[in-house]
C-alpha cells in the first residue's frame, strides 16, 4: 500500500518538496538579511538596556523599517501550509472522483488499511514539510520577535506549530469534501477557501480572546505595555480609542473630541493631552503579554488540528461504512 | 455442501427503489455462472454486494463462505472482481499495475500475470492511458486472475467489446476457469454464454426468475405449436412459461421433463435466448407475486 500511495502521488510529493526547497531558500535569505540588520544596528545591547537611548530608539526604528521591507516576502508564508495541504489532498480527491479507489478496494486490502496508508502517508509528509517550513520561518523571525514580540497577527501565524495545524486542516477539509461529494474542484476550492476564511476569523475575533487580556488605564507617563506585547485595544495606530473617566464610565473617541477638541497639529495635540489629564480621562488599553506566545500556539493548534482530526475521522468512517 | 456464493433474502434499496429484492440463491463451487437479465435488473448491484463495494439493505450475502463487509480481510484475497468499466490507474503502466497487484495481494501469481500479458501481446511498458477498450478489459481480467481467486466476479465484462475482443476475452477466461475456479459473469448479451457457462441465473427487476444448470435448462424447455383452444390444457408439462396465440395456432414455451407425448402438440427445442426472453416477458406481464425463483438443480 505504501508503494501504491507513493506511485499514485509521487508527482505531488515531489512538487511539495520543490515548494519546500524554494521556501527554504527564500527564508534562509530573508532570515540572513534580518539577522545582519539586527547585528549591524546593534539591537541586542539596546534590548538589554545598554547604550544611548536616542541612538537605540533610532536603531530600533530603522531595524523595524528594514523588517517591514521584507514583509511582502513573508506575508504569503501564512498561506503556504494551506496550499501544501490542498496539494497533498488533491490526488486523493481525484482518485475518489475517478473511482479508481475501487480497484484497490477489490484487491486484498481492507478499506481500513487502505484509508490508513492512503491518508496517513500524505499526512506524515505534510507534517514533515510543514514543520520544516515553520521551523525555518520561526528562525528567520527570531530577531524580530526580540524587538516586536511574536504574538502579532501575521507574525504569530507563520511561527511555531500553528502553520502545521492549518496544513492538516486544509488536507482534512479537502479529503472530507471529496469523500462526501466525490468532486475534485469543490473539494479543493472548499479546502483552501474555508480554511483561509476560518484563519481570518480566528485571527481577528477568536485569538485576542484565547486568554483574558490584561486591561489597564493609561493616564500619562510610559505605556503600560511593553514593545513586545500584543496590544488589542488602544495604543498607537488604533482605530477605536476608548477613554475611561474616574467613575469608570467608558467614553468613545467622538465624545472625547466633543470635550477636548480635534487633534490637527502639534499645538492641538498638546492641548488635547492636557485636557484629557485635567479631566482624568485615561485611555483604555488591553493587551496580551508577549510571554503568552506558546500558550496561544497551544490553544490555536489544539483548536485547528482538533477540527482537522474530527473531519478526518468523519471521512474515514464514511469511507469504511458508507462509500460504494 | 459449501457454496462459492450464497445470498439469503438479499435486498438493496436506493432511496425508495429496490434494485435487488429478496434474492435467495446458492452457487455451487467450480461452476461458470451466467448472471443474465435486462439492464437495471440488479446484476451489478448483486456483484457489488458480493465483493463488498456496497452494503446490503436487507438479508445476507456470503462469498467463499465469508461476509464481504464483516470479514473483508479474509474474504478479499480469495475473491476476484472485474468492474464493468475497470477503473485502472491512468498514470500507471501495465507493469506498474502488476506491481500494484503483487503489493496488495498475498496469493498473487506474478509469473501468471507476466506470462498472460506476453500472450496477449501487451507490453509491460505500455501506459494504461494508451490501452484500447478491449485491452483494458484483458488487462483487468489478468489482474483479477493473478490474484488466484477461488471465486471470480465479472460485471458485464464483454458488453463493450467487439466480437473479436469478446472471443479473446472469453478464451482467456475459459483457460483460467479450467482449474476449479468459480466464475460469475453478468451479461445482458446471451448468445456468447451458452458455450462458456454451465450454470444460469436470470435476474429481472431485482428478483431471480430462473436458476439452474445450463444444460438442464436448455433441455428442460420446449417450444410447442398446437391448437389455440387447447392452450389452457397442455398435458404433461411442469410449467407454461409463455404462450403466444395467433389465429387458431398457439405457440408456447414450456418447462417439461422427459419426452413430450401429447399428439396434438408439435414440440421443438428452444435455445437459451428464447428461454430467457420467455421468462423475462412473463416476469413483466404475469402476476408479480408468483414470480418465485424456479430451481432446476437439486
Structure description:
The complex is a heterodimer of chains A (324) and B (298). Chain A is an alpha+beta fold. Chain A folds into two domains: 235 residues, no CATH class; 77 residues, no CATH class. Chain A is 68% helix and 7% strand. Chain A contains twelve helices and five strands. In chain A, β3 and β4 form a beta hairpin. In chain A, α5 packs antiparallel against α7. The longest helix of chain A is centred in the middle third of the chain and has 38 residues. Chain A is elongated. The model of chain A has no long low-confidence stretch (mean pLDDT 91). Chain B has 298 residues and is an alpha/beta fold. Chain B folds into two domains: 211 residues, Rossmann fold; 76 residues, no CATH class. In chain B, 30% of the residues lie in helices and 31% in strands. The termini of chain B are close together.
Short description:
Chain A has 324 residues and is an alpha+beta fold.
Keywords:
heterodimer; A: alpha+beta; 5-stranded antiparallel beta sheet; 12 helices; B: alpha/beta; Rossmann fold; 7-stranded mixed beta sheet; 30% helix
Q: How big is the Rg of chain A? A: 25 Å
Which spans of chain A have pLDDT < 50 for at least 5 consecutive residues? none
Question: How far apart are the first and last residues' alpha carbons of chain B, in Å?
Answer: 12 Å
What's the number of domains of chain A? 2
Amino acid at each position: 500500500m505504501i508503494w501504491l500511495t507513493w506511485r499514485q502521488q509521487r508527482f505531488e510529493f515531489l512538487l511539495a518538496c520543490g515548494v519546500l526547497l524554494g521556501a527554504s531558500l527564500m527564508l534562509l535569505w530573508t532570515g540572513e538579511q534580518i539577522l545582519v540588520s539586527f547585528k549591524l544596528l546593534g539591537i541586542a545591547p539596546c534590548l538589554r538596556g545598554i547604550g544611548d537611548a536616542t541612538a537605540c530608539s533610532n536603531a530600533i526604528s530603522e531595524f523595524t523599517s528594514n523588517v517591514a521591507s521584507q514583509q511582502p516576502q513573508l506575508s504569503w508564508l501564512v498561506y503556504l501550509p494551506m496550499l501544501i495541504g490542498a496539494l497533498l489532498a488533491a490526488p486523493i480527491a481525484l482518485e475518489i472522483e475517478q473511482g479508481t479507489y475501487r480497484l484497490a478496494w477489490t484487491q486484498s486490502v481492507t478499506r481500513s488499511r487502505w484509508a490508513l496508508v492512503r491518508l496517513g502517508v500524505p499526512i506524515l509528509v505534510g507534517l514533515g514539510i510543514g514543520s520544516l517550513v515553520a521551523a525555518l520561518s520561526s528562525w528567520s523571525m527570531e530577531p524580530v520577535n526580540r524587538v516586536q514580540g511574536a504574538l502579532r497577527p501575521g507574525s504569530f501565524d507563520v511561527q511555531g506549530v500553528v502553520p502545521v495545524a492549518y496544513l492538516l486542516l486544509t488536507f482534512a477539509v479537502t479529503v472530507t469534501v471529496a469523500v462526501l461529494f466525490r468532486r475534485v474542484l469543490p473539494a479543493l476550492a472548499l479546502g483552501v477557501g474555508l480554511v483561509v476564511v476560518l484563519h481570518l476569523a480566528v485571527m481577528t475575533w477568536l485569538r485576542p480572546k484565547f486568554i483574558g487580556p490584561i486591561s489597564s488605564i493609561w493616564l500619562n507617563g510610559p505605556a503600560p505595555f511593553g514593545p513586545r506585547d500584543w496590544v488589542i485595544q488602544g495604543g498607537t495606530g488604533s482605530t477605536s480609542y476608548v477613554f475611561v473617566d474616574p467613575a469608570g464610565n467608558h467614553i468613545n473617541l467622538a465624545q472625547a473630541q466633543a470635550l477636548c477638541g480635534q487633534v490637527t497639529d502639534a499645538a492641538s495635540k498638546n492641548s488635547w493631552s492636557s485636557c484629557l489629564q485635567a479631566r482624568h480621562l485615561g485611555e483604555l488599553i488591553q493587551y496580551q503579554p508577549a510571554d503568552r506566545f506558546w500558550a496561544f500556539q497551544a490553544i490555536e493548534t489544539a483548536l485547528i488540528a482538533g477540527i482537522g482530526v474530527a473531519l478526518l475521522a468523519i471521512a474515514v468512517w464514511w469511507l469504511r461504512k458508507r462509500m460504494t | 455442501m459449501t457454496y462459492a456464493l450464497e445470498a439469503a433474502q438479499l435486498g438493496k434499496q436506493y432511496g425508495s427503489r429496490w434494485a435487488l429484492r429478496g434474492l435467495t440463491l446458492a452457487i455451487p463451487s467450480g461452476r461458470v455462472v451466467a448472471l443474465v437479465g435486462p439492464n437495471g435488473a440488479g446484476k451489478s448491484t448483486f456483484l457489488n454486494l458480493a465483493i463488498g463495494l456496497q452494503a446490503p439493505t436487507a438479508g445476507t450475502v456470503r462469498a467463499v463462505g465469508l461476509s464481504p463487509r464483516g470479514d473483508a480481510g479474509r474474504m478479499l484475497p480469495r475473491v476476484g472482481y472485474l468492474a464493468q468499466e475497470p477503473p485502472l490507474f491512468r498514470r500507471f503502466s501495465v507493469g506498474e499495475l502488476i506491481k500494484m497487484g503483487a503489493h496488495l495481494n498475498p496469493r498473487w501469481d506474478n509469473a501468471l500475470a507476466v506470462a498472460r500479458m506476453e500472450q496477449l501481446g501487451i507490453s509491460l511498458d505500455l501506459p494504461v492511458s494508451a490501452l484500447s477498450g478491449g485491452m483494458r478489459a484483458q488487462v483487468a481480467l489478468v489482474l483479477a486472475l493473478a490474484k488466484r481467486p477461488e471465486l471470480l466476479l465479472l460485471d458485464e465484462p464483454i458488453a463493450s467489446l467487439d466480437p473479436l475482443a469478446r472471443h479473446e476475452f472469453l478464451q482467456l477466461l475459459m483457460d483460467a476457469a479450467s482449474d476449479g475456479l468459480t466464475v460469475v459473469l453478468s451479461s445482458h448479451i446471451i448468445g456468447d454464454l451458452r458455450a462458456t457457462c454451465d450454470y444460469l441465473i436470470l435476474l429481472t427487476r431485482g428478483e431471480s426468475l430462473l436458476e439452474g444448470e445450463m444444460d438442464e435448462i436448455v433441455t428442460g424447455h420446449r417450444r410447442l405449436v398446437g391448437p389455440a383452444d387447447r392452450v389452457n390444457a397442455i398435458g404433461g408439462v411442469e410449467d407454461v412459461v409463455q404462450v403466444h396465440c395467433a389465429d387458431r395456432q398457439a405457440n408456447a414455451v414450456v418447462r417439461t421433463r422427459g419426452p413430450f407425448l401429447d399428439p396434438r402438440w408439435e414440440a421443438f427445442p428452444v435455445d437459451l435466448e428464447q428461454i430467457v426472453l420467455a421468462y423475462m416477458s412473463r416476469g413483466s406481464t404475469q402476476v408479480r407475486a408468483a414470480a418465485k425463483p424456479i430451481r432446476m438443480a437439486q
